[in-house]
């Protein structure tokens, strides 16, 4: 367990590419996130290898399914020894309660942090509208975050643009994990709701998820250290 607020998203196609970076890192420097691409390619064994190396691992598989399936998937994820895992808040309260109960049943107070994705940071109000969601984006994020808290989860994934309103409404213990982080000179890529690392922390984010600004940099370690030195 480290105090680092930076979670590096290991969005690589295979374990060897991810390990080329991980071998240069240190668990005191950052936490690590394994998402759908790397997990599908490299599997549970790769996640366990990071845990064995003492990294706090966020397993980002964004479960969204019927309650029983999600509860069992969360248990399987927790069995890998991860520090944090996530589901989609739009799966609804019964699904999130099942996830919570599934973890509590086996792990009790030792369960990994369980958080829910509100509105993806790649989405804007127009995309939400095209899905039939007419209320303002921030209102929708707040409603999903409220449901997440009611279901007993530990926090949410949101944009840092929503962090201060969520902190105000849900309290400072409710964990805010914010992707869509871009240093001022970085490419926006496919992200819409972006915030700089410094601003995200000032707005109340607990953890910053950062992928391409680090992984696609000419030297990822230099890029990570530059961010750490700025926050
Ligand atoms: O759950 C996530 O981690 C997540 C939620 C979200 O709303 N937006 C988002 O970008 N992510 C993840 O955060 C990472 C962001 O990567 P970069 O855009 O490269 O910094 C990716 O691995 C995404 O899958």
UniProtKB/TrEMBL annotation:
GO terms for biological process: 'de novo' pyrimidine nucleobase biosynthetic process; 'de novo' UMP biosynthetic process. Substrate binds at residues 11, 33, 60-69, 121, 182, 191, 211-212. The active site is at residues 60, 62, 65. GO terms for cellular component: cytosol. Keywords: Decarboxylase, Lyase, Pyrimidine biosynthesis. Residues 5-227 form the Orotidine 5'-phosphate decarboxylase domain. It holds the Pfam family OMPdecase. It catalyses: orotidine 5'-phosphate + H(+) = UMP + CO2. NCBIfam families: PRK00230.1, PRK13813.1, pyrF. This is Orotidine 5'-phosphate decarboxylase.
């Amino acid at each position: 367990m480290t105090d680092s607020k930076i979670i590096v998203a290991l969005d690589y196609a295979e374990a060897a590419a991810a390990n080329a970076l991980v071998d240069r890192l240190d668990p005191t420097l950052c936490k690590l996130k394994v998402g759908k691409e790397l997990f599908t390619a490299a599997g549970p064994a790769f996640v366990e290898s990071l845990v064995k190396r003492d990294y706090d691992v966020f397993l980002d598989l964004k479960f969204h399914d019927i309650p029983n399936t999600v509860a069992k998937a969360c248990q399987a994820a927790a069995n890998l020894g991860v520090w944090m895992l996530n589901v989609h808040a739009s799966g609804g309260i019964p699904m999130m309660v099942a996830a919570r109960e599934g973890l509590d049943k086996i792990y009790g107070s030792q369960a990994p942090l369980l958080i829910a994705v509100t509105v993806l940071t790649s989405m804007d109000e127009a995309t939400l509208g095209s899905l039939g969601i007419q209320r303002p984006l921030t209102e929708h994020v707040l409603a999903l975050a409220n449901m997440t808290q009611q279901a007993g989860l530990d926090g949410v994934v949101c944009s840092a643009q929503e962090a201060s309103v969520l902190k105000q409404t849900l309290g400072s213990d409710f964990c805010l994990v914010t992707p869509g982080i871009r240093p001022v000179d970085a490419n926006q890529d496919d992200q819409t709701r972006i915030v700089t690392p410094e601003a995200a922390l000032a707005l109340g984010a607990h953890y910053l998820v950062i992928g391409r600004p680090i992984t696609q940099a000419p030297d990822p370690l230099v890029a990570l250290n530059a961010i750490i030195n700025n926050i």
